[in-house]
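Onboarding guide, step 5: your first structure request.
Type a short instruction followed by the sequence, for example:

Predict the 3D structure of this protein.
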Amino acid sequence: MKVFVRTCFIAILLTAVCGVMDAQQTAPAPTLTLADAEQMAIAHNPSISVAKLLQLAQAQVTRETRSAELPTATGSLTAVDARDGTRITAGLLNNPSVYDRAAGGLTVSQLITDFGQTHHLVKSAEYQAKATLNTQRATTEDIVLAVDQAFYQALTSQAVLLVAEQTVAARQATADQISALTNAKLKSTLDQSFANVELSQARLLLLDAQNAEQDTMANLNALLGSEEDTQYSLADRSSAAPLPPDNAEPLVQMAFNARPDLAALNDSYQAAKQYSRAEHELSLPTVSALGAAGGAPVRADQITSAWYGALGANVSIPVFNGFLFSARAREADLHAQAAQEKIRYLRELIARDVRTAVLSAQAAYQRIGVTRQLFDQSNLALDLAQTRYKLGLSGIVELSQAQLQQTQGEIAYANARYAYQIALAALRFQTGQ
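The system replies with structure tokens like these:
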């Protein structure tokens, strides 16, 4: 009885597992368009999340710096039980008396002027916050470009996989036909061997295409911010590809105005200039005001008033600190000059990359037409080779060569179509569109 129950349990478990596997195999893959992929990456890619958090953190630095311009209020509660006649006699130049008391009060301090130092520090923090915001935009554009490239690479791999599957089916049909003819003594075993070799090569092509398709899909899932190995059905809904631009110079100027990474460097340079001005003003005086008020409802007899209040001003004038301020000012000047040189260097890189992207797009567009002609001619050559082989006018070598060229032509055409889309995506990125 126990053996029967155990057997039934195992059978039910296997049935359930097989049912789940069948459901997974038959479930249709979710459809994914390029626009959907970009939105998913923007929402879930961790690099974009990190950039957003850093931008929010930098915004708090501006508030921290501006706090020096605002009043500071401190409340105090003090209770003292002192020995009669006690004075603090060690560690200080004066001997203040200590009286019994319980008191509370409020101290308020306010910076009157430091002759622009804090103002320039605030402006520097504001420019740095803008730079971080533009860095966030640049990170988003980097991820969008990577998603576009991964999407079209996955489309390419799927197209190549389809070609490989069709090639295996065609070579299998040819091998079966030649095998039947060989068995009927109408073809030689050499023909059958060549056909089997071509079939094996097609199967190797299929294995490579399947592996490439899995690799590109894994890369796409990683860019989408997903830990799952989701197999998408990619939908190429892009309209007819536009013609590549003829002149790169207008695009170079467009990139100078639109690239967020260049804008971030410009903001960082402005932040460095403001910080340098603040460092030069360290040697100027600082004027501040201080007010205090409170009361002592419980106090010793020596404290005659139940409340106190005072208001004063203080001027702090730097005299000498071992050339610290001059060194800090010089350091800030050098950092500002370095930031300016970074801008010049990036502008040179942008001009080069835009021109290179235009040339790459032009070449990729031309390859579409050439590979299309190659594909059409290879189809025609394959039809002629098959006809000649069936009529006995050519050998298996000619047919095999025609099949190989047809497969290569179809793969080249698929690669060329999506390579042009990748080139256009790179051009959009380089021009900041």
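Each response can be followed by summary notes, for example: Residues 1-5 have pLDDT under 50 and may be disordered.
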